[in-house]
Amino acid sequence: MIPRRAMLLAAGLGTRMRPLTAETAKPLLPLGGRPLLDHALDRLADAGVEEVVVNVHWQAARVIDHLAARRGGPDTIIREEDALLETGGAVRAALRELGRDPFFIVNGDTVWLDGPTPALSRLGDAWSDNVDAVLLLHRTFQVHAETGYGDFALDPLGVPRRPEEKEIVPYVYAGIQLVHPRLFDQAPDGAFSLNVLWDRALAEGKLRAVVHDGLWYHLSTPADLTEAEFNLHARSLGETR
After folding, report:
1. Up-side HSE of residue 92: CA atoms within 13 Å toward CB?
2. Distance CA 78, CA 60 (A)
3. More exposed terminus of the chain, fewer Cβ within 10 Å: N or C?
4. pLDDT by residue (tens digit) across 138-183?
5. In which element (H, E) is residue 194 found?
6. Position 72 confidence tier, pLDDT thresholds 50, 70, 90
7. Is the dihedral of CA 204, 151, 136, 188 positive or negative?
8. What is the spatial distance between Cα 173 and Cα 169, in angstroms, rounded to a whole number?
9. Cα-atom radius of gyration of the chain, to the nearest Å?
10. pLDDT 10s digits, 94-135
11. Whole-number average pLDDT of the chain
12. Best CA proximity match to 104, nearest among 72, 79, 135
């Protein structure tokens, strides 16, 4: 099951990426010669997604201009936020454009390389009508950055759970998910995190996850971006030899 629509979250301030984001939006920062958000949009287009809602706030005009000049799919719908709505509030505000069927949510600064099967297809393969969301997770030991205690543990059936107090768990959220609009039933108004809805879905047994089998870049600080650039360059050299 691959949906026709997706939401790309591109409104954040990118504070930890300063000074690179002092005058530009984080999703417009270049990696491998292309803005971060183009990497995500290309993956969505390859998966068959036709329409993407993009929320903007910080340096909104630059993001809008870039999307207007972009060639190729998917089509984009801009939602400009006067005040930040956080991840959950931003998606809730866009539900009319996203429709009644399941859709992807992708962080605008998420860059990933697929394994044997594209990650978006794997989320679709894991979907069932009795779940509200399927998250893409990544192994913490493969992340060259601070991950704290991790985000989730995962059982063999793909059912995640939150860590207990001071427990270290092996997976972090990789910034990509497939959700049903009903995840937002009775969601709070205004700004809120998607974590609120994940925890409710966990309690109801309606949250699932798959572990990414390719590469994923944790892009929080300028050092993370530099390391990712080095890694991509090294891979490119290896592929041309």
Report:
1. 20
2. 10
3. C
4. 999 888 766 778 999 999 999 999 999 989 999 999 999 999 999 9
5. helix 194-203
6. confident
7. positive
8. 12
9. 17
10. 999 999 999 999 999 999 999 999 999 999 999 999 999 999
11. 94
12. 135
| CB of 132 closer than 8 Å to CB of 148 | no
**Helix, strand and coil in the chain, % to nearest 5:** 35, 25, 40
What are the C-alpha distances in Å from 101 to residues 77, 95, 96, 183, 237? 17, 10, 11, 11, 42
Domains and CATH numbers, the chain: 5-240 (3.90.550.10)
Q: What tokens were used for 7?
A: 């939401």
Tokens of 240: 């041309």
d(CA 212, CA 77): 28
In DSSP terms, 153 is beta-bridged to 161
Q: In 3-state terms, what secondary structure has residue 53?
A: strand
SS3 112: strand
**Residue in the block written with tokens 């107090």:** 165
What type of residue sits at position 174? A
SS3 (DSSP) at 10? coil
Residue for token digits 């190729």? 72
Contact 225, 219 (CB under 8 A): yes
**Residue 218 has which token pair?**
């944790």
Bridge partners of 133, per DSSP, are 179, 207
Q: Is 165 helix (H, G, I), strand (E, B) or coil?
A: coil
CA neighbor of 204 nearest in space, from 178, 177, 186, 192: 186
